[in-house]
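User: What would this chain look like folded?
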Amino acid sequence: TQGIVPPSTAPDAYVVHDGAAAGALAFTLARDLRSSGLKAVLHCGGGSFKSQFKKADACGARFAIVIGEEEVAARAVKLKTLQGNEMGQQETVALDDLCAALRAR
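Assistant: Here's the prediction, encoded as structure tokens.
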């Protein structure tokens, strides 16, 4: 009634990963995203990418950051859009450019 819209509690990104090296990178990446002021959720329960994506959708995250062994080797991640008009689009983003890429969207 007062016209005040509370800030969104949905995370900017949900980090999904598979593999030991990917898990270590995911932990570091989530910490760095939070330090830069972004809301990031790190999946810690194991499971397939499919089950992790279901949890990312359920929490309302705008993006999924996908890390597998190939991404670890390339020092990059897959950034998948989960909300909005570009839903389902996926691109590869270098680790050094990830914060800027998330802020630009």
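The two ends are 30 Å apart (CA to CA). If you want, I can go into more detail on any region.
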